[in-house]
Amino acid sequence: MKVKKAMVVLAAALAGLGLTACGGGAKSTADGLEGKNISIMTPYLSSVTTNQMVENLQAGLEKEGAEVTVIDTANDFSKLASRIEDVVTAQTDGIILVSADPSQLENQLQEAFDANIPVFGCDSGFIEGMQVNATSDNYQMGQLITDYLFNDLMGGEGNVIALTHRPHPGVVKRCEAFDDAIAENDKISLITEQHIPAEQPINDAQDTVENLLLSNPEKGSITAIWCGWDEPAIGATQACMEAGRDEILVVGVDGNEQAVDLIKQGTNLKATVKQNFDGMADIVLEQMKLLYTGKEIEKGDMYADATLITQENAE
Fold first, then answer.
1. What is the side-by-side strand order in the sheet with 94-98?
2. 3-state class (DSSP) for residue 301
3. DSSP symbol at 305
4. What are the start-end ranges of the H helices in the chain?
5. 181: closest CA among 240, 233, 140, 232?
6. What is the pLDDT of residues 109-135, one digit of tens each?
7. Which of 144, 257, 267, 292 gives the lowest tally of CB atoms within 10 Å of its CB?
8. Distance CA 116, CA 157 (A)
């Protein structure tokens, strides 16, 4: 009887070790997310879409019984790096980076990896050591909106302005698709590329475009404005409308509700690519539940589907 009891205890202990190991980290147990302290971290909470993802993640985690801390550093990456160090020191059970480039935070994230703290991304990049980054195929979205602008709207020729924000890992992939497309088309010229800060992108884009319209006053001097995401597209549209430049085509990416409304109204804003931000949050939540119940997950980027929105299919 004693031998039998010892074997049962040993089997239970080995099963427990196996569950912990297949999760890939000391913080991954078979208990799920109940009672776990999860840190959601972003530099861009003021962005409509980033805020949407954070809210969905927080609601989903709290529904599973996790305790959630949301940390926003207001476009300050050095502060974000410092706060990652803080939550690692405080032994958080998991980190979710939202709209943040992990390649700019490698040293701090390595501290999390060394402490066996799982790190997930939502609309961020992916580096070795992370679990999953849920995002859109940003290069493909860049191709989709650029091809529609260049071929369907512009007819393969004209002059274009680009409003970008290359520090964002998703936007930079869209910009790379734009760069590749314009390099292959000698009938389309880039007038200028302008960086739009993330804090007040609508206002800053409107101011930038107002100045560009003053320096390019003749109708036809600007064919289109390509925007790396929807907030600059909204600002650019407002500037064009106020100046009476209804001939200028504007496109963006994200599927922002205000942008879609402008498309419906038949303004300068002609198209966007709607990202599935709810789907991204769902991917992260599902993968976290798997990890924290001891299941194996496939590490890397996981994509949520995106859809081209024009006046014909805007809802």
1. 67-72, 37-42, 94-98, 119-122, 132-135, 300-303
2. strand
3. -
4. 2-22, 48-63, 77-89, 106-114, 138-147, 169-183, 201-215, 230-242, 257-264, 277-292
5. 140
6. 999 999 999 999 999 999 999 999 999
7. 257
8. 53
